[in-house]
Design goal:
Strand content: under 5%
Mean pLDDT: 89
Structural class: mainly alpha
Shape: globular
Radius of gyration: 22 Å
Number of strands: 0
Low-confidence stretches: none
Distance between the termini: 38 Å
Length: about 350
């Protein structure tokens, strides 16, 4: 069932999103650099390998690199980052560098996490101002589009006033806002996550064949944007199926339609897997081996990040440590900028009106 929305409401929605976009853009120039920005920009080289040089051998997974190469060699780091990071954001940043006229060898080297900001800068591990600004713009544009989609989701589930309040919260949440302005994975991550949620809302309501296809496609893109999206995707699939099963139990849905809808979900799942596979050339050679390696790398990374984002230096962190770090990281954006010795820049940002509204 389609609902006609008055043109004045549509115009106000557009103006509302534009105002939020101005706030996102306003603080983009004073955001402290985060190490993932040089890394994602560096990984934009994959765009050149794939579409400009058309040399797919540079993108294939090669287990011998992890065995024979040094942990800090370029080959080892490139393959590790290629497996750890989603394809979409790095391809977007590579495309951005390409249209700005950069050659592949003019893109910065990867960020050195154990180095100071000054050493990273001296060794060419930070994008120049032109490239950094351009990639941040592409990230911010994705974030703003995601905000617009979020408004549509909330409008479908609730009402227009709730949608406006929800978009304000999303836009001014310090952590989300900070990474929405940066050239990291979060712009693509949030955009495709919002898109697949919107398709899921429409699918549960309308149950059209094209929506099952779109659900699978957007789910594949969402996981290709950032791997942890797979958890939310699985929950969306489970929620959709559970909703129809409950309808069947309450005799609001007949058995034939239930089987048809569950079958449609299964097909959506196959489409999502195929889409993800098509978007990840590193998986083409040996998908099972690549998947196993990604899980190992992700597990190691999560363990390191969990330890890094706590005040405790103990080997076994308490529940209090985890709880405090969760609220500080998710709601206050308190611990993000102290990793790169940019205390003055971070202080300037957090004291400005562009810092968002922490709870």
């Amino acid at each position: 069932m389609s609902i006609r929305i008055p043109r004045a409401y549509k115009l106000f929605d557009f103006i509302w999103i534009c105002l939020l976009a101005l706030y996102v853009q306003g603080g983009m120039y004073i955001v402290p650099l985060q190490g993932d920005e040089p890394i994602l920009t560096f990984m934009g080289r994959d765009f050149y390998h794939h579409f400009i040089e058309q040399d797919m051998s540079l993108l294939k997974y090669d287990e011998s690199i992890f065995i024979n190469e040094s942990r800090w060699s370029n080959k080892y780091m490139e393959q590790e980052l290629r497996l750890l990071n989603g394809t979409i954001p790095k391809y977007i940043y590579g495309w951005t560098a390409y249209i700005k006229g950069y050659k592949v060898n003019e893109i910065n080297r990867p960020w050195g996490w154990g180095y100071t900001y000054e050493r990273n800068l001296a060794e060419g591990r930070i994008p120049d101002d032109v490239l950094l600004t351009a990639t941040r713009y592409t990230a911010a544009i994705q974030f703003v589009i995601a905000i617009g989609i979020f408004l549509v989701i909330c409008r479908n589930l609730f009402n227009r006033p709730v949608a406006y309040l929800a978009t304000v919260y999303l836009t001014t949440n310090p952590t989300i806002l900070l990474d929405g302005r940066r050239a990291v994975s979060e712009g693509s991550h949030i955009l495709f996550m919002m898109l697949v949620i919107l398709i899921a809302v429409w699918l549960i309501r309308d149950r059209r064949r094209t929506q099952f296809i779109l659900f699978g496609l957007t789910a594949g893109f969402a996981v290709a944007a950032k791997h942890p999206n797979a958890i939310i995707i699985m929950l969306l699939f489970a929620s959709s199926g559970s909703y129809w099963i409950v309808e069947f139990l309450y005799q609001k849905l007949n058995r034939t339609d239930l089987i048809r809808f569950i079958t449609g979900l299964f097909i959506s799942g196959i489409i999502s897997l195929g889409t993800f596979y098509a978007l990840n050339p590193a998986w083409w050679e040996n998908p099972l081996q690549s998947a196993h390696k990604v899980i190992d790398l992700r597990t190691e990374l999560v363990a390191l990040q969990t330890y890094a984002f706590t005040d405790s230096q103990a080997s076994h962190l308490s529940l209090t440590d985890h709880t405090n770090s969760f609220f500080r990281f998710v709601f206050a954006a308190e611990v993000i900028d102290n990793l790169h010795n940019q205390y003055d820049v971070a202080e300037q940002y957090h004291q400005s009106i562009w810092d968002g509204i922490p709870i």
